[in-house]
Write a structure and sequence with these properties.
Helix content is 69%, strand content 0%. It has 111 residues and is mainly alpha-helical.
Length: 111
Amino acid sequence: MQRRRFFGLAGGLIAGFVCGVATLRGELPSLGVGLASSLDYQKQLEKGLKARRPSDFTFITTVVGKVQAGDLPQSMVNETFDFARKQSRDYPFIYFQFALRKRADKLGVKI
C-alpha cells in the first residue's frame, strides 16, 4: 500500500510540474487547439461551459452554426468562453450567454 501511495504522489507531482512549466512558457493550448482537439468545437463549448439544460445546448448549437456560417468570429466566441470560465467555475454558461449576446448585438448578429 505504501508503494502505491508513493507512486501516486510522485506521478501527481511530475504531472503538476510539467503543467506548471508549460503554463509559465505559455505552451498550454487554448480552446480548439492541441489537447482538446479530439473533441469537436460544440462539445468543447458544452463541456467547458457546463451546459445542463436543453436551452443551453440549443444556444451552443446556434452559436456553432453562426461561427460555421461566418456570422460570428470564432475568436470572439473563444474570448467570451474564457471570460465566462473566469467569472464562475460552477456555472459559466450564464456569463457566456449574456456576454456573447451583448457582443453579437454590437456586430448586428441576432442569437
